[in-house]
Specification:
The protein is of the alpha+beta class and about 60 residues long. The chain is built from one helix and three strands; from the N terminus they run βββα. A three-stranded antiparallel beta sheet has the order 1-2-3, with helices on one face. The longest helix is centred in the last third of the chain and has 24 residues.
């Protein structure tokens, strides 16, 4: 998580073992809050969804965007 101005953003690099499927270098998503506790909750939810997405890409790589 990173603050840009007053807002918190979720920031995560793409793991090397996924980069051949997900070609982005970095994920940056605004958490649309300046509350640290709310940002942590939203970041945890995003992290879970992103990990599920990557797992899906690994098991079915033809679905990559």
């Amino acid at each position: 998580m990173k603050k840009r101005g007053r807002r918190c953003h979720y920031v995560r690099r793409i793991p090397k073992d996924i980069q051949h499927i997900d070609t982005r270098e970095l994920i940056q998503i605004s958490l649309k809050t300046d509350s640290l506790s709310l940002a942590q909750q939203r970041a945890a939810t995003l992290d879970k969804h992103i990990l599920e997405y990557w797992q899906n890409l690994i098991t079915t790589p033809d679905k990559a965007h």
